[in-house]
Amino acid sequence: EEALEHLCAHYEAGHPGALLADDMGLGKTLTALSFMGWLKTLQNDDRIPAKPSLLVAPTGLLRTWAKESETHLEHKALGYRIDAHGASLKTLRVAAKAKELDVGLPVLDVGHLQRADWVLTTYETLRDYQHSFGRVSWGCVVFDEAQKVKNPSVAMTDAAKAMNAGFRVAMTGTPVENRLTDLWSIVDTVHAGKLGAL
Known about the structure:
Number of strands: 6
Radius of gyration: 16 Å
Structural class: alpha/beta
Strand order of the largest sheet: 1-6-5-2-4-3
Helix content: 40-55%
Order of helices and strands: HEHEHEHHHEHHEHEH
Distance between the termini: 33 Å
Shape: globular
């Protein structure tokens, strides 16, 4: 409850994002799903514009996110979900064999992504299709295992920071793995400039 209040308070204060760095096993996934459900309720009540949420997680956790949403939320509480990773990318592609990072243009159906209520993807997919994901106006972007953006000098972190998001949530039980730069990079991804320059 405290973690959900933490996210809602940051959102209502107009902050660009927040870090949820509870220890492992304390319910970060449930908190983020509840927050996304809260945003969906605000959208359904016409209190905020209807925009999709993007959830970025390591490949091995995507199934967990889908299952947890079905277990803990009312049926279809988050609405229509698109799985934008792995084999499902074939159905989203509009440019047959072009590699997005080579052509510098979207190759996924941006309109289809925009019409979803929430989208599940991986960090690698976000990096490789950043022009497509970057064209969508996201209501919220959630970065699970946000230590994946701990390095400020890699393309994955650049892609995460480039998303057009109304609000961002970084979730990690290990905000500092090796050095303080890890924490700076994660916070800078969700609230640019909050900790000053690197």
